DNA sequence: CCTTGAACCTATAGGTGCTAGAGATATTAG
DNA sequence: CTAATATCTCTAGCACCTATAGGTTCAAGG
């Protein structure tokens, strides 16, 4: 049996985060010691490690919730799991595309500045007027990694 | 003079967002009509357009706040503004690097799945064990575009 | 056995950048 | 004048935690 601190250390997840996952139903409430402290079986470490790894790969908690419930039904087809992963891959690619457009524009902006006064600063000027931009590709879209 | 709706339409910013910017002190409180509705001078459109563009380029509101107060002092050196832009460029590049690592791992995961049952699904397996990953580069880091 | 200090408990609030809703008032077009 | 639209304030919610406060339990050393 593991205390919440040991569990967190083993999985690389902070203690309040574990409690948060329990609160939103991503981790089942574990048993308690006589003094009311959480005690986790080894299996909880696998589950938390799974969650942590999926978070590291950018999956949203809702997707992880679905993946976990799928992994509890080992006989079923994995099509649903694969679809979730492909969706995530597409989301990551979309973010990369957007960020790459931002990078180009920022790079241009920084490179063109002559390091004089604010009045002649290219950074300030470009920010004030999108028509100075080479690309339209930074139309607002999304967030989060 | 512009109503909040016209201002928002002109700058491509939603009305509640404008009120939010006012609330956090990013936009100065404008005058009001006799019926207590906000009335903006033309200059507010420039300021809001600046904010919108900087947001589109991923600058956090705090950085934009700094950039705006710099742009109010046109005689000063633009070094501080350039530094903010370079910081933003570095942040964008860091996110791209991280997302590119995620992309590679997700791609591998999806490609290796044989489309059988959950029990043999490579997606589920890799998520459960980071040692299946080719790279360590998805150690948690940041967020937001 | 007793004390100390770390780890644990609950509950609440904050952070980022908005967005959505309720319920009331103002303005504008027909 | 009336009806539709736009505005007003206030509050709560989104994702995903993180931090704080104020209290209890546990493990080890003396
Ligand atoms: Zn400059
Ligand atoms: Zn632009
Ligand atoms: Zn599969
Ligand atoms: Zn991995």
Walk me through the structure.
Two copies of one chain form a homodimer. Chain A has 145 residues and is mainly alpha-helical. Chain A has two domains: 2-59, Multidrug-efflux Transporter Regulator, Chain: A, Domain 2 (Orthogonal Bundle), CATH 1.10.1660.10; 79-132. In chain A, 58% of the residues lie in helices and 5% in strands. Chain A contains six helices and three strands, in the order βααββαααα. The radius of gyration of chain A is 23 Å and the shape is elongated. The two termini of chain A are 33 Å apart. The interface between A and B is large, with 63 and 63 residues. The site of one zinc ion has 4 residues of chain A, from loops. Chain A binds a DNA duplex (30 and 30 nucleotides) through residues 3-5, 14-17, 19-20, 24, 33-38, 55, 60-62, 143-144.
What's the short story on this structure?
Two copies of one chain form a homodimer. Chain A is mostly helical.
Architecture blueprint of SSEs:
The structure is a homodimer of 145-residue chains.
Chain A: E1 2-3, H1 4-11, H2 15-23, E2 31-32, E3 38-40, H3 42-56, H4 61-71, H5 79-112, H6 122-128
Bound molecules: zinc ion (4 copies).
One zinc ion sits between chains A (113, 115, 121-123) and B (78, 81-82).
Chain A binds a DNA duplex (30 and 30 nucleotides) through residues 3-5, 14-17, 19-20, 24, 33-38, 55, 60-62, 143-144.
